[in-house]
Amino acid sequence: MSSSISQTSIPSEIITTSSSSVSHTVPNRSYMCKFIHEILSLTDHEIERLIQSDNFHLLHDGIQKFYYENKNLKENEINHTFEDFLHKRDFNYIHDTCSYNNKIFVDLFSNLKPDMSWNCTTTGSQLNDYSSCPFFFKSIIELKTRKLKTKDYDQIASYLTSILRYSPGRKFIIGCLTNFEETMLIMVLYDDTINQIKYIKQATVTQLTGLQILTLFLSLSDTQLGYNEKFINILSNKKIVFLHYLGRGSSSFVFYCESQQEQLIKFVLKISRQNCTKEKFIIEEMNKIKRKNMNLIQCMDMNFDDDYADYLITFNLRGVKLDKLFMQRFLDDTQLLINTWQQVHLCHKIGYIHSDIRIGNMIMYENMVYIIDYSSAVQPKTPSYYQGCLSTASNGILKILGSNSEKISLYYTDDGISFLKCILLLKPYFQHYTSIIKKAIEDNMTCDILPTYEYAMKLFKDKNIIKTLVFLEENREILSVDDLNNIIIHTLKNEKTDDYHIDEYLQKLKL
Length: 511
Ligand SMILES: Nc1ncnc2c1ncn2[C@@H]1O[C@H](COP(=O)(O)OP(=O)(O)OP(=O)(O)O)[C@@H](O)[C@H]1O
What we know:
It comes from Rotaria sordida. By secondary structure, the chain is of the alpha+beta class.
């Protein structure tokens, strides 16, 4: 399988670890080179005017003095000293984050720590829990005390990418890499049309000195950095208070919140870089046709009435991830499995394929399992870039992704296969292969997943669940929603019985 998989989709989790924690490094990241004025969308003349201004001179001379006084400091010391320097000059919102440990910050950057973060904080000069949410970041500065290296570009580019991929509607972000004598601007852009991130670095040919470029960077406005405050305003206008951070997906952060308007309503808020209208629509349509007592997640109408409201979605219940004990119950309790599957079937009934069925997209609430995250859902015969996870994708999908990176069509059966693969990955006899698949995702070696499934499915060909999987793979393109439902329910009901002749049942269906 080619590396194209990692470009068109964001690998997702296997069991509990978040998909996006897998890797923020893109192998062989390629950069376009542009002049400073192109990166900043300014003319040479505008840049010239800026650097002639009194404010620029004042800041530039201050940084120069700072540099000469502190050039012998160690890297971790210089961050802190530079923070002090900036705060004294009213740059209150740039923080030394070398050792910042807040959970959201740690999750956002996958345990790595940018040197300095330029945030939009509501609480003055202190970083607090929620000001390290991705959509509060304006930029990142990486401070080095040695010559800049290629790996430094990659490091800052991955920080900027993390912010960009979780910032609703944000098109680009500009960061700064400096050792004071040399400064480089890096721009990361999101091209929604081709679902790809692009990297731009500043051309080394420039008349400006490192200190001038750094001063110029610090003088940039929010808009020039790609930051848009309008989105944040919705949250403050609606007086939404964040109570708990619940987790993140590959394009969203999720919080338990309280609305401080008339009624103190509590709800789950997902803030996504992607438009959530489709996900909202699907959940609402499913709720219209669901049976009375069926467990199903619901959206809440918070009247966000704003352009940016499309990047927000609210849910009625706050679940928890399936823990070890519950996963065991999930495996043993046939009725629980059927209830969970029925939510996927309902999604099919309204004409959508969930396309990201995995344990990480199941939450537990009052002893029931709820399927979440309908954001990757697609309609059959509608080619699109695959956004689901790879660890539970059907072999059919894995094969196609291995040979091209174009849009692909999915089938309802793909969800059935993913559902059974979720169970398979938890089975004791499959654990060796579960580890291989998990490692393949972590190491970005997604090409190993398909052969692992193919090999293990031959090895365990007598297991009932594998017999169904083989049948579903063979008939992936032709099974109707109802046939698929019957097969899955039949398999779940009979999966644990030894004298079960699934072949006969499946052959009957084939006829
Ligand atoms: N209702 C909820 N209750 C508790 N936690 C939730 C809820 N909804 C989402 N979460 C948490 O937030 C995480 C991200 O949510 P979700 O999977 O919907 O985001 P996403 O960005 O669309 O994900 P994906 O990576 O699949 O594209 C979930 O894995 C889960 O941990």
